[in-house]
Design goal:
Strand order of the largest sheet: 1-2-4-3-5-6-7-8
Radius of gyration: 30 Å
Shape: globular
CATH topology of the largest domain: Rossmann fold
Strand content: 15-25%
Distance between the termini: 35 Å
Number of helices: 21
């Protein structure tokens, strides 16, 4: 899903920006000529480029004034004004210090920012950049004025058209890619008009930051392609030679556009910023695929009715996801009434399928399941290939209540204690060979539900919540011990970051509410804590706190807006409408836009606070709101932990219980240094 576009106000100009990811360092991407922060996500390649950057940073992207979704401005913005825009965006994004990554024409502005604001520049990365566009006796590279005029004429003549003339200059290796050409044409149209591009480009041609280069003190990485046809490699070499201590990396290729063949570029950036070079990514991987399908779904829908069937499906989905998390499976997608998931081990996949079947049986839902192990094609979050096709055909052969596996799966789990019944040789539709299939004979006993690792309870009586709402002891007092390998287990906050250590691996995360919640639960294993108490802990987190709890037994929190606040809002609306009328009559577009924006904001606030007929809305039951907030924060935090420390994530997913009362009940006692 595309990130939210926000606005920061630089003087009288609104600058559009987005924040992507939650990495340990802020990275501001300073674009080249023109940009559009929403249109970039429409190209799969550009979206993957941004996604990779966001994998090791908190990425901040923006449109420079006069381009994209930022305000159009009279005249041509100066380099200083555009530098101020970067500072304003950083302030709005809550970034005190960031890596500046200048792409092409964004390089000179990044250089000037790094020299002017060294305290706010953590590092500097330049790709395809130049200190000066036109040549002179001491700088023999660049374009003459005649070449610049010819370039501008060519680009403006084909601006916004899918005729490949711009791509032929910027990215000749992909100029014939029809889909890219159509996207690039739309990107140009939405980013700026032809006249605006020409004016901006001519202004950039006058930039000269050579005198600033020796003053840069931030660690700097300069990247350039050796065959770049727009900005020749001499420009990159000059930058690296004149920035103190700069690291220079020359890459193969003839394209100037960063979004073409960008993986080697991002590998260098990631290693420069993190000290770790990313490992190779694979398009194929060995996996066990699981398909499930509800038996008689149509008949059950007719018997239960649409609403009851939807409620049952919600419980069906929740139970499957709980078991997938417990058995380390990955949900790929839902298929109507079925699920497709993958596992890195066939025995866990079988046990998960049996647990799902048995758990759903308690809900009155009967399923069939099929499994196969083979090499799968990895296509983003999806999987494909013959192995997936075989898995689907195996599931189709399963009888109601059966977990059916291919001979490959059976052979791989020898010695696991699993037992099978031979179902004979079958011809699977669309598969060239015949396959011997086996039914899993005895359901393995372990399930996430049995160990209490999920937020699901088969029946309401099992909750046993005390009438007073007081915390309850759910397990005997636990005497802890170190991790299974004897190493120290750590869940400790140090300023804006948390240090997490488990099973001999250490990981650091930026502060967030979910970490506070989990840390409090780890401090009292076996004890249930009301969500209201956890919410109060979030006040010290970097991302703030939920509404402060008043009382666990409290009902709703009163009206969203009291009468006095409502009157103030309406009085302000009247003033703004008068101001809008005056500004419109005077032709003051900026003042009129500001008034209109504030009117829209206040109107939304009033709409949220009052229902039909002007009846005030109440804030609702705080316990339920807190439960949802705490559960979501813990889940998001576990997803962040899973990226850097899968073993710790699995342990916490198995041991944490969420609900109105939350607790941590590990399979065995552990001492945590908190």
């Amino acid at each position: 899903m595309q990130p939210e576009t926000r606005y920061a106000k630089s003087g009288d100009v609104h600058i559009a920006y987005q924040i992507v990811g939650e990495g340990p360092r802020d990275l501001v991407l300073v674009p080249g000529w023109v940009s559009h922060v929403e249109c970039v996500w429409d190209d799969p390649g550009f979206a993957r480029f941004l996604g990779r950057l966001a994998a090791f940073s908190r990425l901040i992207i923006f449109d420079k004034r006069g381009t994209g979704l930022s305000d159009r401005v009279p005249g041509i913005p100066t380099l200083e004004e555009r530098m101020d825009d970067v500072r304003t965006v950083m302030d709005a994004a809550g970034s005190e210090r960031a890596v500046l990554c200048g792409i092409s024409e964004g390089g000179p502005m990044s250089v000037l920012f790094a020299a002017t604001y060294p305290e706010r520049t953590a590092s500097l990365v330049l790709y395809g950049a130049q200190a000066k566009v036109t040549p002179d006796p001491s700088y023999p590279w660049g374009w003459t004025l005649e070449q610049l005029d010819a370039f501008v004429a060519t680009v403006t003549a084909g601006w916004g058209q899918a005729d490949a003339r711009t791509l032929a200059m910027l990215a000749p290796s992909v100029a014939e890619d029809l889909a890219l050409r159509h996207w690039w044409a739309r990107y140009e149209r939405q980013s700026a008009s032809p006249g605006a591009f020409a004016a901006l480009f001519r202004m950039n041609a006058e930039i000269d930051v050579r005198s600033v280069l020796p003053t840069i003190r931030a660690p700097t990485l300069v990247l350039h392609r050796e065959g770049d046809r727009c900005v020749t490699v001499d420009h990159g070499r000059y930058l690296a030679e004149h920035i103190p201590g700069a690291k220079y990396v020359e890459l193969p290729g003839i394209d100037h556009l960063v979004l073409v063949g960008f993986d080697p570029i991002l590998d260098e950036i990631e290693e420069f910023l993190t000290g770790v070079r990313p490992g190779p990514t694979w398009d194929r991987a060995l996996a066990t695929v699981l398909f499930t399908d509800i038996v008689g779904a149509t008949e059950q829908t007719a018997r239960l009715g649409d609403q009851r069937w939807r409620d049952l499906l919600d419980r069906y989905h929740a139970l499957i996801r709980t078991e997938l998390a417990f058995f380390r499976g990955r949900e790929v997608k839902t298929l109507g009434d079925g699920f497709l998931a993958t596992f890195d081990g066939p025995a866990r996949a079988i046990r998960c399928a049996c647990a799902i079947r048995d758990g759903l049986g308690q809900l009155g839902i009967e399923i069939r399941a099929g499994l196969h192990t083979g090499e799968c094609e990895v296509m983003g979050d999806d999987v494909g290939g013959i192995a997936v096709h075989i898995g689907a055909r195996v599931a189709a052969r399963a009888a109601p209540g059966e977990v059916l596996v291919s001979s490959t799966v059976k052979d791989l789990v020898a010695g696991s204690g699993l037992h099978f019944v031979d179902r004979g040789v079958h011809k699977l539709h669309g598969v060239p060979e015949e396959w011997r299939l086996f039914v899993v004979a005895a359901p393995p006993p372990t399930t996430a539900m049995a160990l209490g690792t999920g937020d699901l309870v088969p029946n309401a009586e099992a909750l046993d919540v005390t009438a007073e709402g007081a915390p309850r002891e759910t397990a005997p007092a636990l005497r802890g011990e170190p991790g299974a390998d004897g190493t120290e287990c750590v869940f400790h906050r140090d300023g804006e970051y948390w240090t997490l250590a488990y099973a001999g691996e250490t990981f650091r995360l930026r502060d967030a509410k979910g970490l506070h919640y989990i840390g409090h639960l780890l401090a009292a294993p076996g004890t249930e804590v009301h969500v209201g108490d956890l919410v109060a802990l979030g006040a010290g987190a970097a991302d703030g706190a939920e509404d402060a709890p008043r009382s666990v037994a409290e009902g709703h929190l009163g009206t969203v807006l009291d009468p006095r606040a409502r009157a103030e809002y309406k009085r302000r609306l009247d003033d703004l409408r008068e101001e809008l009328a005056e500004a419109t009559g005077a032709g003051d577009v900026g003042r009129a836009a500001d008034a209109s924006n504030e009117i829209e904001l206040i109107t939304k606030e009033l709409s949220a606070a009052y229902g039909l007929g002007g009846r005030p809305r109440t804030a609702g039951d705080p316990a339920e709101r807190w439960r949802k907030a705490v559960t979501n924060q813990i889940r998001r935090t576990l997803e962040r932990i899973r990226v850097g420390h899968p073993a710790l994530s699995r342990h916490l997913e198995n041991g944490l219980r969420t609900g109105v009362f939350c607790s941590y009940v590990p399979e065995r006692p552990i001492i945590w240094r908190l």
